[in-house]
Structures are given as C-alpha cells and as structure tokens.
Design goal:
alpha+beta, seven-stranded mixed beta sheet, flat
Length: 291
C-alpha cells in the first residue's frame, strides 16, 4: 500500500472517485440466508409460467387438466474481496483517518465487484433492437417506445419498470423532450439513489457497469440478484469483525495483526451472484453496431 508520507500533507481528503451502485436496487433480491446448508453457493429460482383458460363448450363434458409449468433459473454466488496490509509505521505515523483512507476504498471496491456480477448478466444479453448510430431525439424516443410496447405486449406489469442506461445513453435521453429529469423535480432522494429521471413509465437509472451504448428496459422481476455476508470467523474475537453496507451491498470486514511481520490486515469481502430470469421481462437496446 502506498500511503502518503510527505511533510505537511493537507487535511483535505479529496472525494473518492467511485461509481454509484444502483443496479442491485432495481431487481429482485434473493435472501442471502437461502444460500446455506445443502444449497451451498448455488440456488434455483422458480419462474412460474403463464396459463391460458380453456372453454367448456358443451355442458357436462370432460374438462382438460394442464400441468403446472415452472422454469428453473440458477444463481451462483462468487466470493469477492479486497485485502490490505499496513505496517506499524503506516498505522502509527501516516494513517490519519482509517475509515476514510483504508475502509472506504475497500468498501467501494467490493461493492463495485458485487454490482458487476449483475451488470455482467445484463451485458451478456443479445440486443433486441438498436439505437441509430447517429443520435437523434426522435430515434431515442422511438427505441424506448418500442421497449415499452414489447414489455406491455408480454403482459409485464406496468409498475416497477426500470430503464438502466450507460452514460452515453443518458446523453441521448437528456435531449428527448418527454424525459423528466430527476433534478427538475427537486426531490433530493432521487438524486441520492442515482435515479436520472422518468420516461414512458420507466424509472431511469445510470450505471457505469453497463457496456457503452446499451440500455435495458426491464421489470424488477427480470433479474435475480443475491448477496450474502460471510460468517464471522470463529478464530477471531468479535471486536476484530465488522460489517459495512454500500448501495445495498452488505459485506464483512475483518481485522488481524501479523506478529511475525508487524503488520495489520484489513479484509473486506462478500458473496454475490446474479442471473437473468426471463427475456419477456427484459428488452435490451444497443447502439447499432455495438452490443
């Protein structure tokens, strides 16, 4: 670790450059406690399939019984971590604020890693339609309307619909007349939650985890995300184990001292995993030629 040791270091700590974690808050969450015992690091989500009513044309005739159909969706957890060592000299002479200089960057790294599990499930999907390579408000408007129509035609509920976009797609949206910006509403809560605005029933969120030139229109149930905090090690006292949360991602922090090397250890870790649930609940857009 490179900790600044020069004389007259300013007390001003420049804000940490890290992306806002937003995607996990827009999808279905699997309770972390379900990943235990026989399930291990993998769990199956049951996706119920739509049914169609039949008609009994002639009174008294036999009716038809249809099987209950469900589709399995597997979600596997990955162990994500960030580990740092600090010497006695760094801890005694250089670290002014442990939380700001050490814990915050570690929390950010693990949180982004967890969100990337969900972003990867989104990025791998094949686009259903395209934005024109040359952006125009009318093309952007038409593409989002097409996504809205596709979801509605698939009987996707009107509520809990999100439009997750890469930053360059936000630029396109800002030029669309019907896009209602969150900052124009004056609600600070939306800004803190990284909500960019609303359009055609979609809550628009921006994520740097998405590939450039892509946008995903989906219902909350379109993706499943899981996050579990690792258990506290039995070999450490309680004052050496803590927890932290960032953007809805929970994680564990453990502290340990290496007597042989006279160094402190700080390790942040979490389990996270995600998968797409069903394509009719998701509609992907990409700039023509990108995916």
């Amino acid at each position: 670790m490179a900790v600044l040791t020069a004389q007259r270091i300013s007390s001003l700590a420049v804000a940490l450059l890290t992306r806002s974690l937003v995607l996990p808050m827009t999808v279905s969450r699997i309770p972390g406690a379900e990943f235990s015992g026989d399930n291990g690091d993998k769990i199956t989500v049951r996706v119920r399939q739509p049914r169609a009513a039949r008609k009994q044309v002639t009174p008294g005739t036999d009716i038809v019984f249809d099987a209950i159909n469900e589709v399995p969706v597997e979600v596997t957890l990955t162990h994500l971590y960030d580990a740092a060592r600090l010497t006695d000299e760094e801890m005694s002479l250089d670290i002014v604020d442990f939380g700001v200089q050490v814990t915050q960057p570690q929390v950010a790294a693990v949180g982004i890693g967890a969100e990337d599990e969900l972003a990867a499930a989104m990025n791998v999907l094949t686009p259903d339609a395209a934005f024109a390579e040359t952006a125009t408000p009318s093309d952007t408007d038409d593409a989002i309307l097409a996504a809205r129509e596709a979801l509605s035609s698939a009987d996707v509920p009107a509520g809990d619909r999100f439009l997750a976009v890469a930053p360059d797609i936000t630029t396109r949206l800002l030029k669309v007349e019907k896009f209602v910006r969150a900052d124009a509403v004056g609600d600070g809560t939306a800004i803190r939650e990284a909500i960019m605005g609303r359009i055609y029933g979609f809550t628009v969120v921006e994520s740097n985890g998405l590939d450039a030139g892509t946008a995903l229109a989906y219902h909350r149930s379109g993706f499943a995300f899981a996050n579990r905090v690792p258990v506290a090690p039995r070999g450490l006292p309680s004052n050496q184990v803590g927890t932290a949360t960032s953007g809805g991602i929970s994680m564990r922090q453990i502290f340990q001292y290496e007597t042989k090397n006279l160094r402190d250890q700080s390790v942040l870790s979490t389990f996270a995993g995600a998968n797409v649930v069903q394509r009719p609940r998701v509609f992907k857009l990409a700039v023509d030629g990108e995916s």
